[in-house]
Amino acid sequence: MMSFLEMRGWYVAACAGSTRRQRMIGAFIVTVAAFFLGLSSPAWAWIDPLDTTLQDPQVNGTVYSLAIQDDGKILVGGAFSSVGGVARARLARLNIDGSLDASFASPDFDGGIVAIALQSDGKVVVAGGFNRVGSAVYRMAARLNTDGTLDSSFADPNLESTVYSIAINRDGSILFGGTFLNAGGHSYGSLARYSSAGVLDTTFTRSNLNGLVAGLALDGDGKILAAGTFTTAGPSNANYGRLARFNADGTLDTSFINPAFSGTVSKIRVQGDGRILAGGSFASVSGTNRGNLARLNANGTLDTSFADPRLDADVYSLAVQSDGKVLAAGNFTGLNTGGSFVQYLRLVRLTGDGALDNSFRDPNLDSTAWALALQSNGRILVGGEFTTAGSSSDPYQRVARFDAGFRQLSFTRPANGTVTSDTGGLACGTTCSALFSIDDQVTLTATPSAGYGFAGWGGGCSGGTSPLTITISTDITCTASFAASGGGNGNSGNGGAVTPPAPPPAFVTTPVTVVQNAATVGSGSGTLSLASSFANPQSLTFTATQNSGAPLPAWLTFDPATVSFAYNVPIPSDLPIQPLADADGRAGRADARASWSNTVYPLLLRVAQLPVTLTARGDGQSYATTIRMNFYAPRSPVAMSAVSLSLDGARGNGRSGRSALSWDGGQMVFETAATNIFPASANGFSDIVRYQALSGDR
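Above: the chain sequence. Below: its structure as tokens.
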């Protein structure tokens, strides 16, 4: 890696160089040269947004990249040699409170780290200006295991010069963007694609960009957006001023209109609606004034509904909050709004239409901010060159955290019912936590399952009626209780369940034993209702129907004499496959086939309480009650036959097992250790696959 003096000399020569490419690269590198050294506002808005619950991590050099893992731990990359006084060469992991995570190996890098990306399996892809990781040669990019050790299964990508950006495709392949002209021994200027094993993908078309790539992003269609200093792209050198879009195979997407940025675009973010945020060092977009931050429509035209924030200096990082507000970080000191200059030192928040959000105060960072990341609770992590932050200039060396004004509403997942909110997307059952702004009013509705009634709120929520409206002021964890019919007040937004009348004193009881087995697959399934009709109090007759009222499926029979079910589903051979994502998040092939031996498995039943007691009226009248029960397919008693994975019928290279049949008998889920079921599936994990039976097979 070049020293700063060497870089400065190269930059001076480049600016005077004979090629346009050299001059553009030089103009960008002067900005990042330090890297090579190693309205009515809510009440809360005027509180200092600095989150002092994060301890000062004491990073002794610039932080260029941040990434947050699923467990909330924070990966930090840059040009530093220690964190919290402990040696860490350019990469470290922090605990949620900002302390150094000593369990993360953090191997030594001989040059700075500019970009970090997380794979779905938790492995960490890093890139920058290094040539070695420890004693191993890894030029400009490498991959680490989840514990921070070097992943030697990832090959040296052999990139000739600095990588500034990473994007990971859905299929696990990895895109790198930077200043390189060669990758893996081939001519790939500024943009290249590698397999998940670190091997250059030579089927990827050369981009022919005439400048560096500083930012990468993937849109919803898997197309590739590249940003940087270039002005032309593609084999015909089409004009694309600092931002271009490529098809998944690397060919230039000529349907994307040249946005014609007047200067470098350093960072891009694709919003959920397909519109593109771009930040950098520019004064106009397609001839229209835009001060270092703009938004494009999905086709590349300027989105004029997004205001010009007129930031007074460069933008290096962008983030979009869950409420659509936009965060920008860089080396600016403020913006021009309403005809006057408003100070915002290195970090600012805008509304979804680009106006200043003055509910977020000036963070008062004393030097450049290079990186942004959003935690699951909405709090904002910032990394950069600063050493103080907040209105009191508290010491925060290179990493700080700010309160975005969100609070988390969470529910303990309820049994026998669900809870939903009118805003924010809370739907528990499935989604049991959501972020809300302070002072938001949220209406919660509790809906009991059939046979149950709402019994009341608990935890941070109180009361016995539903719906319930609360005002968000802090993080809240609530509960909702449901009781068997008659156990609650029946409030569920649209009425509760009705309790059958109690039987007269003269009655008889008959215990019913329900088959159960603890070794069931724990995934969700449908439910059945088991009903008993008492035509004669001494001779009880039992029937079974689905809770929808439909008859049992043909493959499931019920014997009223023994009060038991029989389950007989021969699995047809050559089922069409509909794969789930495998263990590392990749989608599978939809056209593969599997071969199964026709096997009959016993049915396993489970109810909430055993034994179940059914009560018969003593006056000879008919009486019925309903017992809810789930039924599951068992774990396979033996390993199943190997899976046939390809269209030509070749057998899989691993065993399959732990099967489960869906409640309607129409789908089977199984685990397979085969590594040839999906393209590039040699990930070392078992894969989960779902098979959908043809309607004629039942």
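The two ends are 65 Å apart (CA to CA).
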